[in-house]
Amino acid sequence: MTDEEAENAYRSGLPGPLGVIDTLISKLEAVLLAMGVLLMAINTIANVIARFVLGDSIFFTGEINRILIIMITFAGIGYAARHGRHIRMSAIYDALPVGGRRALMIFIALFTSLVMFFLLYYSLIYILDLQSKGRVLPALGFPIWLIYVWAPLGFLITGIQYLLTAIKNMTSRDVYLSTGVVDGYKDTETEV
């Protein structure tokens, strides 16, 4: 690892076991996202080459890309939460003093965490329903419920991330958008 990579590596701002959990989850997200994007690119390129060289597409390419899109989407929501990249409506929030922003951020993070755990529960029910129907992917023959296991995993990771964000805001004087991102605006103006 180079010095630049070491600087850009995620470091949890949480103490003790929470920091270890946060760091492990960040590594899992990074692997899932990188692997998903690379596999999708390789799969798509192989299909294009097969179509032009052999005159026939690879019959299971669409299903593999569908699986990878689902994986990338649900791994990505945790990544977005971890890096404070989620969409915010901040007019009222920005008008509050630091203590009010911290209190509101704790509420937002806890509420969002509860919503993620609620969605986790319902995604598990959905997967169990799919499993009971016994449907399979036509080309690959996998049970269709297997491609949706990424949804509860993504909701779990995101729920944990927002819960850790609430804890970070409860134990810090600054306001945090995530465990490692302090609230604030970067100066985007450039010199002419």
UniProtKB/TrEMBL annotation:
InterPro entries the record matches: DctQ, TRAP_DctQ
UniProt-recorded Gene Ontology molecular function terms: transmembrane transporter activity
Every Tripartite ATP-independent periplasmic transporters DctQ component domain range: 40-169
Chain segments annotated as transmembrane: 30-52, 64-82, 103-124, 144-164
Protein's membrane topology: Multi-pass membrane protein
Location of this chain's protein in the cell: Cell inner membrane
Keywords for this protein: Cell inner membrane, Cell membrane, Membrane, Transmembrane, Transmembrane helix, Transport
A biological process from GO: C4-dicarboxylate transport
Keyword Cell inner membrane: yes
GO cellular component, one term: plasma membrane
The family this protein is said to belong to: Belongs to the TRAP transporter small permease family.
Protein purpose: Part of the tripartite ATP-independent periplasmic (TRAP) transport system.
Summary of subunit composition and partner proteins: The complex comprises the extracytoplasmic solute receptor protein and the two transmembrane proteins.
Protein name: TRAP transporter small permease protein
Organism encoding this protein: Halomonas alimentaria
